[in-house]
Amino acid sequence: MSFDSPFDRRRLLGHSLAAGGLVSLSGCVSGAGGPAMASRIIGAAPSLAPMRASVDRITDIKVCLRPFRPQGPRLDTEMLGDTLVIHNYGHGGSGWSLSWGSAEVAVGKAAAALPDRLAVVGCGIIGLTSAVMAQRAGMQVTIYTKEVFSRTRSVRANGSWTPDSRIALTAPAGEAFGALWERMARFSWKSFRSYLGLPGNPVDFADNYRLSDEPFTAREEEEAPPPGKGSYASTGMPQDSSEFASYGERIADITPGHEVFASGSTPFAAPYVRRSSNMFFNFSTYGHYLMQEFLENGGKIEIREFHEPGELAQLKEKVVINCPGYAARDLWRDSKLIPVRGQTAWLIPQAEVHYGIYTNNVSALSKADGLMIQGFNGLGDMEGVGDSSELPDRAESEAAVEVIRKAFMGFKFG
User: Fold this and answer.
1) 322/119 Cα distance (integer angstroms)
2) What is the pLDDT of residue 46?
3) Residue 214: which residues within 8 A CB-CB, separation 6 or more?
């Protein structure tokens, strides 16, 4: 995940998946044999404005609990009395990225029942996208939710294109899941492209610069987390990053290579700099577009909290897409759902900065609604696994901001 678990070398392919969109938009794609080879740029220093990272510029600290299921997201159906329930939750760190693809799967199952009207439970990114997709299929939709979109856990995420970030564990998911993942990833990718260039940049791209004091091949080996003891099969909890599934090679045809700069040719003081491109989502404007479409097409929202699955059978709609996110652990007694904690600090927006960096286990990305900074502990995909605390840790965020501040000491500007 570009701004989630960048230290796992198995994810290096995934870090630049979205850059394939830049290649595709220009009318060129890499060869059918796989991703383009990394290229070295000599004497092509980018012109960048520096990030103004300091703790006094922190405006918010957000904590997100990603709903991770070792088997992959739950997309099956069940009957509650005369009500058909289609589940759509448990996407780990890939909810934003796979939202359109998983909605396409869920709505397809709902449409098979030929409903005139449909209910969606939950108004996070999965629920809201599912509702819009159902409307596009001709259904009248009501969202039942405890919180409106702007107050859900979805907007506490970092919102980057990371389609296989903590999406499943290889063994529990099984071989068949890879094909379903690819279907969802490709459908989502095409759907997001339709939002490019709209006012407010609901979906956007940024170059990401990875900084290092040592050559990347050696550094990546050092950053690989040490093997854990045990496994999910024996403990009921993943113990090592190597257990997590990686599917990036399945969409390698839209994946270019990284660009490696010659030493000293960039504004950064770090001797080794590598660049990739990534898609990301601006929560406010993207959420506004989705909500506007939903309401303009006659969608309704009813504030309601469910305590038992059987309460869904009491709804007037007899087809329900269930998108409760992490709340499914309690509502559906889904003990397989594992929390994965992540914290981000949000600083005052910098319109003149339009890129991201990763250095010393800290990432930063300039978005329309703020400069987002996130620190990591070097645990790879095991970062935050099993941690259900939603209390912000300011000391953690201040330490991460300080790392970014130091990264711009000696920065050559102008």
Assistant:
1) 8
2) 78
3) 222, 272
> What residues contact 31, with CB distance under 8 A and at least 6 apart?
none
Split at pLDDT 50, 70, 90, the class of 258 is: confident
Distance CA(353)–CA(50), nearest Å, equals 7
Give tens-digit pLDDT for 16-54. Answer: 333 333 323 222 323 333 344 455 555 566 789 999 999
pLDDT digit string, tens, across residues 123-136: 999 999 999 999 99
Q: Which amino acid is at 328?
A: A
Name the 3-class secondary structure at 213: coil
Go through 255-270 and write b for each residue having 16 or more CB atoms within 10 A of its CB, e for each that does not. bbbbbbbeeeebbbbb
What pTM, to 2 d.p., does this model score? 0.89
User: Residues with Cβ < 8 Å from 174, sequence gap 6 or more?
Assistant: 71
pLDDT digits (tens, 9 = 90+) for 139-193: 999 999 999 999 999 999 999 999 999 999 999 999 999 999 999 999 999 999 9
Exposure string of 277-304, with b = 16+ CB inside 10 Å and e = fewer, is bbbbbbbebbbebbbeebeeeebebeee
User: What are the distances in angstroms from CA 121 to CA 91, 131, 154, 299, 371?
Assistant: 16, 9, 14, 13, 32
Strands 83-87 and 362-367: unpaired
> Minimal CA–CA distance to 89: which of 329, 360, 393, 335?
329
> Please, what is the end-to-end C-alpha distance for the chain in angstroms?
31
